[in-house]
């Protein structure tokens, strides 16, 4: 990619956000509505609200719970997905149960999880896991089922060791769909991170936003919403960097197929 293409891509990425911020700034510049303060006032409270004590007390604990729940969901989703996708009888046996639990919204499970896991960080991590695991699991199952039968037969003929077959054929072949499920799970995890902190919590971004709302600290409440958006952007960028690194072989293959 040359410099001109890089500049063009950056401009495409930032144009819409800049326009939206400009529209918000203009629309609220002279606002006297208590619940819709000017964007300049919201941004003026952003630094002192989140970077003077609350970053370590609220933001970092929220990110730690999100990371823990997301990683557990990755391990469970990929592990169970590979097993279910590889064994047809197991898939047929578990499919009704999986569909039942998948249809239950994760926020509904919060009161139930509070009964068993208490109101600490463990409950919040479990809420994140309960929502993130499904897109990873289902995409992994479909990715394993869609493996090229010729490659599977070749691996069987050459008597590949189970570990080598798992790593180099199954996981590698299903990795594009696993990545798609992991990306969906990340956005779900951020939502559940906030929801879980709105129930019997003492810290976290979701807890703090609710406290601002209840105390009518509206600019601070809006600053928390902006913070969540920035966290989502940052995590998406990190995910894309990791995805590009792990799926470099796949993107290169697709590129060569389009050019041929």
How would you summarize this macromolecular structure in one to three sentences?
Helix content is 82%, strand content 0%. It is mainly alpha-helical and 260 residues long.
Describe the protein.
- The chain has 260 residues and is an all-alpha fold.
- The chain is 82% helix and 0% strand.
- The chain is built from eleven helices and no strands.
- Helix 3 packs across helix 8, helix 5 packs across helix 6 and helix 6 crosses helix 8.
- The radius of gyration is 22 Å and the shape is flat.
Shape: flat
In whole angstroms, the N-to-C terminal distance is 19 Å
What does the largest sheet look like? none
pLDDT below 50 for ≥5 consecutive residues: which ranges?
A: none
Radius of gyration: 22 Å
The string of secondary-structure elements, in order, is: HHHHHHHHHHH
Which structural class should the secondary elements be placed in? mainly alpha
Total helical segments: 11
Query: Which range best describes the helical content: under 10%, 10-25%, 25-40%, 40-55%, 55-70% or over 70%?
Result: over 70%
Number of extended strands: 0
Give the averaged pLDDT, no decimals: 87
Work out the strand percent: under 5%
Topology, pairings included?
Blueprint: H1 3-28, H2 39-50, H3 54-86, H4 88-102, H5 110-117, H6 121-145, H7 149-157, H8 162-196, H9 205-214, H10 218-246, H11 248-259
List descriptors.
mainly alpha, single chain, flat, 82% helix, 260 residues
